[in-house]
Task: structure prediction
Amino acid sequence: MTASQHTPIRIGVVGYGNLGRGVEAAVALNPDMVITGLYTRRDPAQLKPANPATPVYGMEALAGHVGQVDVLILCGGSKDDLPQQSPALAAQFNIVDSFDTHARIPEHFAAVDAAAQGGKTTALISAGWDPGMFSINRIMGEALLPEGATYTFWGKGLSQGHSDAIRRIPGVAGGVQYTIPVEAAVEAVRSGTRPQLSTRQKHERVCHVVLAEGADAEVVRKTIVEMPHYFAEYDTTVHFISAEELARDHAAMPHGGFVIRSGNTSAGAKQVIEYRLQLDSNPEFTSSVLVAYARAVHRMQQMGLHGAKTVFDVAPGWLSPKSAAQLRAEAL
Result:
């Protein structure tokens, strides 16, 4: 019996930006799930869900909905929203979030775990594609090929964080930044030779910028390419374009990348494992991952698996709407 033959899993969506809209689209493709509410800090009357029948609530309504939602999918940002929202909501609800500040994952996990253990809820953090699917492929590669090296390449894709950094520069009216893997580096890794690659050798950055009126293009270009942590460590190209070109050619949010493990199982036997994503919409794919993990969280809660979890703790079969017997018959 499939999950869709049971009562649908009740999903609450916290936040209605790009990720929230992606979750709405993903749940529509999963017949074993239903969105029971969108929760927003904005005026609920201003939100127009894709399905007009979907209820929209203010955040304050959540306190009265304990027991009415199986899993909350949190669609806020990692910088300011999730560090507060995830622990607060995990005290009363099963949750999934996409916290992606890699260096702060251990402290985020600890805060969410304390809340979820106290509330006997199941709270999965840092789902998405990186962290998330790429993380799984990194540990799989290392486990299968212990003698080797792991390489992660991102792109070609639009980086939301780097694009935001560009837009904050004085003299910039608008802009986007694309991260592009250096093809020679990717091919060297695929060859199994295990090259040692610097940051600059692995990726380049290409910026498309709309200048504010009266701004000095050379000053803006120099500010971008010398920005520490964002561009200084990379070969960075800046193209100046019109606002019309920006709107016409750079509104989509494609992304993707590769995780490659290159190793040896004996002196003469090179082995290379590669996982690749090619995404027309970064937020829609991330949302699809969150929705699959919401299904797993619902199952884990029913098994009594409380506390904070990551993608490393979830059996692949728990992500599927199909039963274990179906998966053995069809996919194994």
User: Anything to note?
Assistant: The first helix runs from residue 18 to 28.
